[in-house]
Amino acid sequence: MIIFGLLTISNVHHAHHRIQNKPSKSANTHRTIRELHFRKVDRHLLRMLIIQILLLTILYIPQAVEKFHITFKPFDSDSELADAIKVFLYNIEILLAFIASSIPFYVYTLAGG
To answer: What domain range is 68 assigned to?
Structure first.
């Protein structure tokens, strides 16, 4: 995801340079304002990408740890309470994974401006 996000930002950056006209000397101020706007957009896209990656990482790590834990230590305890706690924690981790699936929508909506 990091690679595709960075490639998308790079493609947007290169697209701005491909469609740019050759400005005359009198249009220098307009060009600098436009370049500042493109830099601002690029920083905004990079910030959105970093926020999305951090949130997805934070929300998916508990499920990965729990799956790793279940692989080596299955639900074979003697106590029903311990099994109930494990199932409850597993359900919380599944909920976090579902929340992580909706994160891109909220990041783009809230940070999209």
So the answer is: 2-13+26-111
For residues 99 and 59, is the Cβ–Cβ distance under 8 A? yes
pLDDT tens for 40-62 read 888 888 888 888 888 888 988 98
Question: In the chain, how long is the greatest CA-to-CA distance?
Answer: 82
- DSSP string covering 69-101: HHHHS-S--S-HHHHHHHHHHHHHHHHHHHHHH
Count: domains in the chain: 1
User: pTM of the entire structure?
Assistant: 0.64
- A 10 A CB-CB count for 78 gives 6
The 10 Å Cβ neighbour count of residue 93 is: 19
Q: Is there a domain that residue 68 lies in?
A: yes
Q: Does some domain include residue 33?
A: yes
